[in-house]
Amino acid sequence: MRILSILAASLTFSIASAAQAQSCGGDFGSFVNDLRSEAVSRGYDSGLAETFFRGVQRNQAVINADRSQGIFQRPFLDFSRALISQNRMAAGRSRLDQYRSVFDRARSEFGVQPGILLAFWAFETDFGANQGNFNTVNALVTLAHDCRRPEIFRPQVFAALEMYRRGELDPRSTQGAWAGEIGMVQKLPSDIIDHAVDGDGNGRIDLQNSAADALMSAASMLRANGWRANEPWLHEVTIPQGMDLTRTGLRTEMSVSDWQAMGVRPAHGSLPSGDMRGSIILPQGHRGPAFMVFHNYRVLFEWNQSFIYVTTAAYFGTRLMGAPVYQAGTPETGLNQDQMRDLQQRLTQRGYDVGGIDGILGANTRAAVQDVQAELGLPADGWPTPQLLRSL
After folding, report:
1. In what order do the strands lie in the sheet with 290-293?
2. Which residue, 78, 103, 147, 189, shows the most beta carbons closer than 10 Å to its own?
């Protein structure tokens, strides 16, 4: 599931030049030869590089998967209901009991609470049951050769080569997700190199078979990306009628006490201390669920760049820790994929950067929608409706 989350590598052992990182396309065999030559120029033994790249194949199924990510076009209520089943809830609570000592260590050493680790473990691989059957090296080289995001995937090829040099990856047998991620929590090679932890203390790191290794490594990566120890990430709230909706969205951040002064209230339990800063997000507009999100929620975008995925994982994490089901409300009808593309095209023509005409309501599109809604005198909640599209 971590399919929109690919991060540019920060490999400590070598950094490719900008020209190398941009190289893509052309004859696949020649491209692989270039990678092999670059590996040698980086200082890798020629025999090792030859063995690593021998037999690498372009996998069209990887390209097809990269081009078909329609699940992220679903609205929050549909998406969250599809991913959060009673079976997943029960499995998550069972894993919490089974690995309680590991979760306690993750919280003690990295400050990361069990709920968010369980949520990603569930969404990424169904707690390790579905880790993917794509050859990792083939997937990475295929995506590096493809000219859509070579600057992201080419460095991951060399991270995989480094893992092979260390004896941590087999170019023939290592399998994982279509985007080159490996293990129970789906980590890219550079993430493994930078953040993997021997959680079970057996002297080796095995993210595919050791839940302790996978969970501690996930906590390590979150902490390295800025996770603040034992702070919340999301809390459901209610917003008052007549609230200035232009204040909602991730662009506006205020203290909890300031939000409370505006009439924002917790939907259950209590909000954190008044000095903590947060934002109000309305994933499906002002008539749907409302959440206050904090610094740690924003850190989750370093794991996955999809607004709908991150918000659902964050919400699921709170559910696993005892929060009730959200108040679904009665959201207004949204846009289908073709309508969303039409909207993004119109917003682009008005000078907004929507992050691409892809039919997905991401953070950039939401921000542009909110600005135009305010301009047109519509509820500025960032949720595009057919009425907005007609107005444009």
Report:
1. 254-255, 277-281, 290-293, 234-238, 265-266
2. 189
CATH code of the domain in which 266 resides = 1.10.530.10
Residue 270 burial (10 A CB sphere; 0-12, 13-18, 19+): exposed
Alpha helices in 99-184 (DSSP H): 100-110, 114-125, 136-145, 150-165
* pTM for the model: 0.90
Domain span holding position 288: 234-320
Please check whether residue 174 is in contact with residue 156, taking contact to mean a CB–CB distance below 8 angstroms.
Answer: no
Same domain, 349 and 306: no
Domain count, the chain: 2
Identify whether residues 358 and 284 lie together within a single domain.
Answer: no
Q: Final residue of a domain: which of 273, 292, 320?
A: 320
* 308 and 358 part of one domain: no
Q: What is the DSSP letter of 182?
A: B
- Residue carrying the six token digits 């609570």: 93
pLDDT digits (tens, 9 = 90+) for 272-317: 988 999 999 999 999 999 999 999 999 999 998 889 999 999 999 9
Average pLDDT in the 197-215 region?
96
Residue 94 is assigned to a structural domain of this protein: no
Strands, E, within the chain: which ranges?
134-135, 175-176, 234-238, 254-255, 265-266, 277-281, 290-293
**Residues sharing a CB contact under 8 Å with residue 127, sequence separation 6 or more, in sequence order:** 91, 92, 95, 121, 184
Of 288, 320, 352, which residue constitutes the final position of a domain?
A: 320
Rounded Cα gap, residues 47 and 100, in angstroms: 45
**Nearest to residue 145, comparing CAs of 63, 28, 59?**
28
If you search the block for the tokens 């909706």, which residue do you land on? 245
Q: Beta partners for 134?
A: 176
Q: Which residues, 6 or more positions from 360, have their beta carbon under 8 angstroms from its beta carbon?
A: 69, 72, 73, 306, 340
Mean pLDDT of all residues in the chain?
92
- In terms of domains, do 241 and 310 share one? yes
Note whether residue 267 is domain-resident. yes
